[in-house]
Amino acid sequence: MNTRHLRRVAVAVSAAALLPLALTACSGDSDTSSDAGADKAASSAPAKATESAATMDEPFGPGCASVPKEGAGSFKGMAQDPVATAASNNPALSTLVAAVKHAGLVDTLNSAENITVFAPTNDAFAKIPKADLDKLLANKAELTKVLTAHVVGEKLTPMQLEKGSFDTLAKTKLTTAGSGEEYTVNDSSKVVCGNVPTANATVYIVDTVLMPAA
């Protein structure tokens, strides 16, 4: 009887000794799991931040869909050329390019450094009555004033366009407003494809010609 009693006591003591070890092991596993989850969350956060920052630097807007995916007229191709040359490779800007050549501004734009060009599309020029457009093209001084009113002497980021006022090469004021991917220039022209890089300029393609005040 005494022997059985001693065995029971020994088993009870052994179980009591092992219980804290088991609890410690479980607690260790839980902590490891929590640490792994925290490490995973921490490692994914910088990746998301980097992705967001990269997106901010890319061209945006509905008109960007019409830009060629490859070749000299693509975003990658335009980034290699100065702005007037880059525009000449974009079919949607052929009227603008013709006007720039007519005004003799190709070399001026290509040799400028760190500028922003608000580039009207062919459809933007089509909004001008033909008689008025022909008259403008025939007057080199006036044409030069109109075209340089689309050029700012610094590179502008989308953030700067949220509520901006800038001097143009024509010595006129250009104002911008908006946020996200929607911006308006001079209260009338909308950016249809913005933040397009060229070798010496940032281009914002717009849907209306910016006519300077008389």
How are the SSEs ordered, and which strands pair?
Elements: H1 2-56, H2 75-78, H3 83-88, H4 94-103, H5 106-111, E1 115-120, H6 122-126, H7 130-138, H8 140-148, E2 151-152, E3 163-167, E4 173-179, E5 182-185, E6 189-197, E7 201-206
Parallel strand pairs: 1-7
Antiparallel strand pairs: 1-2, 3-4, 4-5, 5-6, 6-7
Helix pairs in contact: 4-8
Computed over alpha carbons, the radius of gyration is: 32 Å
Main pleated-sheet profile: 7 strands, mixed
Mean residue pLDDT: 82
Structural class: alpha+beta
Order of helices and strands: HHHHHEHHHEEEEEE
Number of helices: 8
CA-CA gap between termini: 118 Å
Query: How many strand segments?
Result: 7
Helical proportion? 40-55%
Tell the overall outline. Answer: globular
Instruction: Please state how the strands of the largest beta sheet are arranged side by side.
Output: 2-1-7-6-5-4-3
- Poorly predicted residue ranges: 1-7, 9-28, 30-34, 36-55
Give the amount of beta strand, in percent: 15-25%
3D structure, described in words:
Residues 1-7, 9-28, 30-34 and 36-55 have low confidence and may be disordered. Helix content is 49%, strand content 18%. The chain is globular and about 40 Å long. It contains eight helices and seven strands. A hairpin with a 3-residue loop joins β5 and β6 (189-197). The protein has a seven-stranded mixed β-sheet with strand order 2-1-7-6-5-4-3. The longest helix has 55 residues, at 2-56. By secondary structure, the chain is of the alpha+beta class.
